[in-house]
Amino acid sequence: MTPPNVGELMVFPSAADVTRLCGTNAIGCAQMNLSAAGVIERASVFIYPYAPMDVITHEIGHAVLGLRHVQAVSGLPVPIMLFRSQNSDRLLTALEQEAVRQVYRRGLRGGADRGDFMAKNLIVR
Ligand SMILES: [Zn+2]
Description:
125 residues; three-stranded mixed β-sheet; 16% strand; binds zinc ion; Collagenase (Catalytic Domain); alpha+beta; single chain
């Protein structure tokens, strides 16, 4: 298995790699190489060959956008970035997309920490 070059995302559809690298109960995971500034400089997504599209979107959300897991909010669509999400959509929800837009719109970039997010009023505590 050849790791990706800087600036590349590689997807490995391999059940054996998923079991070995992600854990026995996982159907996918993302592994990222970060630069010293916390910027994702390359990423690998290991995915079970027949994983549903929402799992692929979830792992790419980790690998490309640097998203973490989120909690579900009653009355709103199930987020793709929910841990073990069973959202049948293939896209981030409108709320997740807006969260990503707000982060970039307010000038935050890779390496931003919790204090940076609080200073931009993106999180309150
Ligand atoms: Zn995840």
